[in-house]
Amino acid sequence: VAENRSYTVAMRRVSEACRRLAARLGPRNCSASILGSRGFVNESAAVSMAGNRSVLRLAGRDLYTFLQGLLTNDMLQIESGKQDFMYSAMLNPQGRFMYDMFLLSERREEEPTILMDVESQTVPELTRSLIKYRLRAAVDISNVSNEYEVKVLFGNAATEPSAMWHVDPRLPMLGFRTIVPREDTSAGDPASAQQYVDWRIEHGVAEGCIEIPCGSALPLEYNLDGLSGISFTKGCYVGQELTARTKYTGVVRKRLLPVKLADGHALKSGDPIYETGKSKRSIGQIRLVGGAKKALAHLRLSAAFPKGGKPAALHVQDNESAVLTPLRPTWWDPTWGREEE
């Protein structure tokens, strides 16, 4: 795994090995023997109802063709049966982020059907966008949030309790995710939505328009390329040109990453971040604040990690005593932030 440039791909292979071994040893034995070696599994597990998520159902004979030309990921992977659960995004024609979503195939014999796990506050606008692009495609779009709900299984020793759960397609270390009928009562102890937010902050992963600015964010700056949210081998889709050009010919100078604040200070979303003892020009801003003095920040990498090295001294709100430490997630591609060296 250490020699594999793509940590995400490597961990998927580990996760699949875990699935196979769990069938013989039981999920907890598998978790302790394999997943624990990377340090993201410890002593307990937690389940969140993820109440800020809604579920759309898309169905029809033209479903995969319709979504293939609209979303950033490769729908042929679901159509062919190679994947049942996928993370993807929708961009505007200028290549800016609009929505992200999780796609779960229902594998119905009568017609292709997908359940789409989306941020609740974006449902009306997202539905209008889907209808606008649908044109004459044979695809039905309906909100089934009163029938289905989203659940996430995360935290220490998060093991897969049943076949209904899917490894989070962004990062295996985030745990498991599923879409189930609302009457389903399976899987573990409830945890607050904020605990799950803190778990994502710990690993440097944002989701939804509150955390990823809708209409202005570049998907690569929010790490969708490292979270298996973009296919660079599929054909054209809305917003593809800028995304592909940035990937192959450009340099991603800013990225989203976790930061830790020194004791005795508070953070809020939107706070500008500065280099301590240097220019008064902001190098980024706080995007999301969590517990344990940690947050997600959108930062210029050359300032956060000078010459790709140790974290720089940063501060917020023109207050040099409010010291911030940028944290480089373990799953990051080692070349990120070093493209210009």
Describe the structure in your own words:
With 341 residues, the chain is α+β, with helices and mostly antiparallel strands. It has 2 domains: 42-250, 2-Layer Sandwich (Gyrase A, domain 2), CATH 3.30.1360.120; 251-326, Aminomethyltransferase beta-barrel domains (Elongation Factor Tu (Ef-tu), domain 3, Beta Barrel), CATH 2.40.30.110. Helix content is 21%, strand content 26%. Strand 4 and strand 5 (113-119) form a beta hairpin. Helix 1 (7-25) crosses helix 2 (27-33). Residues 253-333 form the CAF17 C-terminal domain. Pfam families: Beta-barrel_CAF17_C.
Report how far the terminal alpha carbons are from each other.
25 Å
Instruction: Give the total of beta strands.
Output: 15
Mean pLDDT: 83
Determine the fraction of residues in helical runs and give it as a percent range.
10-25%
Structural class: alpha+beta
Shape, please?
A: globular
The amount of beta strand, in percent, is: 25-35%
- What is the total number of structural domains? 2
Order of helices and strands: HHEEHHEEEHEEEEHHEEEEHEE
Question: Would you give the CATH topology of the largest domain?
Answer: Gyrase A, domain 2
By CATH, the superfamily of the largest domain comes out as Probable tRNA modification gtpase trme, domain 1
Largest sheet: 6 strands, antiparallel, barrel
Protein name: CAF17 C-terminal domain-containing protein
Organism: Picocystis salinarum
Subcellular location: Mitochondrion
Domain CAF17 C-terminal: 253-333
